[in-house]
């Protein structure tokens, strides 16, 4: 869109054309001048939201929001995001700098505070967060190191105090077997934490696939798992027991323990 000053200038020139007798040569020159003027204005409006869009490389394109502000600079190939993708805030600050493959994050991805320092550096494989997500404070201190695999939080979260010392989690998983098979009943695992935590979720997963989830039924603050047994009354497979909850720093902590059954009645 052209601003009112631009429109006023155009109106003045058009008015001069209609009120004065001009030679065809002069009129042609004037039309060319108007065209150049409009192209210049439109070009300035197109890049007004920052210098980032003024130095695009081959294969890059700038994407603007509805209000004309720079939103993304995307490196593309075959009609998809392939290469570097940068996302900007409404006030022109770099928010995200990531590597994409076929429209999915695939590689290093950095998110930034408005002061230009990173608040998260993580890695993706085919759109799923994988490896380590390192979180920072605005002054550059490491706050947390969060392990991921296939977009799921893994055990091993590390959080840090302002002085750089690690916060040690003292809660642990407690698992109690309840065997009622000899009385014609069932085999259960009763799961809890050694110390109370808010909004804990317990779930089980087979040893062969530790990131799958079978949510445990809750009984008060304890999780209850009915364990599958064979026709002869033996527990078939060992199983992972997991607990997840939010820490005081807002990170997800996952505790995990492999429970090995002795089996039998």
In short:
15% of the residues lie in helices and 44% in strands. It has helices at 4-19, 24-46, and strands spanning 60-64, 70-77, 80-88, 94-101, 104-112, 118-125, 128-129, 131-136, 142-149, 152-153, 158-160, 166-167, 173-179, 187-193, 201-206, 214-215, 217-219, 222-226, 239-246, 252-259.
Description:
The chain has helices spanning 4-19, 24-46; strands spanning 60-64, 70-77, 80-88, 94-101, 104-112, 118-125, 128-129, 131-136, 142-149, 152-153, 158-160, 166-167, 173-179, 187-193, 201-206, 214-215, 217-219, 222-226, 239-246, 252-259. The chain has 265 residues and is mostly beta strands. The chain contains 2 helices and 20 strands. Strands 1, 2, 3, 4, 5, 6, 7, 8, 9, 10, 11 and 12 form a 12-stranded antiparallel β-sheet that branches. A 4-stranded antiparallel β-sheet has the order 13-14-18-17, with no helix packed on it. A 4-stranded antiparallel β-sheet has the order 16-15-19-20, with no helix packed on it. A hairpin with a 2-residue loop joins strand 9 and strand 10 (152-153). The longest helix has 23 residues, at 24-46. The protein has 3 domains: 1-15 and 24-39, no CATH class; 51-167, Single Sheet (Histone H3 K4-specific methyltransferase SET7/9 N-terminal domain), CATH 2.20.110; 173-259, Immunoglobulin-like (Sandwich), CATH 2.60.40. The protein is elongated and about 80 Å long.
What is the helix content?
Answer: 10-25%
Annotation field: number of helices: 2
SSE series: HHEEEEEEEEEEEEEEEEEEEE
Average per-residue pLDDT, rounded, comes to 82
Query: What separation lies between the terminal Cα atoms?
Result: 80 Å
The assembly state of the depicted protein chains is single chain
Total domain count: 3
Question: What can be said about the biggest beta sheet?
Answer: 12 strands, antiparallel
CA radius of gyration is 31 Å
> Would you count the extended β strands for me?
20
Tell me the fraction of residues in β-strands, as a range. Answer: 35-45%
CATH topology of the largest domain: Histone H3 K4-specific methyltransferase SET7/9 N-terminal domain
Architecture per CATH nomenclature, i.e. the level-2 architecture of the largest domain: Single Sheet
* CATH class membership of the largest domain: Mainly Beta
Unreliable segments (pLDDT under 50, ≥5 consecutive)?
Answer: 1-10, 17-23, 29-50
Global structural class: mainly beta
Shape: elongated
């Amino acid at each position: 869109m052209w601003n009112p000053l631009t429109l006023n200038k155009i109106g003045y020139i058009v008015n001069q054309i209609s009120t004065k007798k001009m030679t065809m040569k002069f009129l042609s020159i004037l039309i060319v001048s108007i065209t150049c003027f409009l192209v210049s204005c439109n070009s300035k409006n197109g890049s007004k939201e920052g210098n980032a869009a003024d130095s695009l490389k081959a294969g890059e394109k700038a994407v603007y929001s509805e209000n004309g502000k720079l939103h993304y600079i995307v490196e593309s190939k075959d009609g998809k995001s392939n290469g570097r993708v940068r996302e900007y805030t409404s006030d022109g600050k770099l928010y995200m700098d990531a590597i994409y493959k076929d429209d999915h994050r695939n590689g290093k991805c950095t998110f930034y505070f408005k002061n230009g320092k990173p608040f998260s550096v993580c890695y993706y494989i085919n759109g799923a967060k994988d490896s380590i997500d390192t979180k920072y404070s605005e002054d550059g201190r490491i706050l947390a190191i969060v392990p991921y695999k296939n977009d799921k939080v893994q055990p091993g979260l590390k959080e840090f105090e302002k002085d750089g010392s690690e916060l040690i989690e003292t809660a642990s998983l407690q698992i109690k077997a309840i065997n009622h098979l000899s009385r014609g009943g069932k085999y259960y695992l009763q799961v809890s934490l050694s110390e109370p935590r808010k909004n804990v979720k317990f779930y089980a997963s087979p040893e062969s696939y530790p990131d799958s989830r079978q949510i445990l039924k809750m009984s008060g603050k304890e999780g209850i798992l009915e364990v599958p047994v064979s026709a002869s009354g033996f527990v078939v497979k060992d199983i992972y027991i997991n607990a997840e909850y939010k820490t005081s720093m807002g990170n997800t902590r996952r505790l995990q323990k492999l429970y090995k059954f002795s089996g039998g009645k």
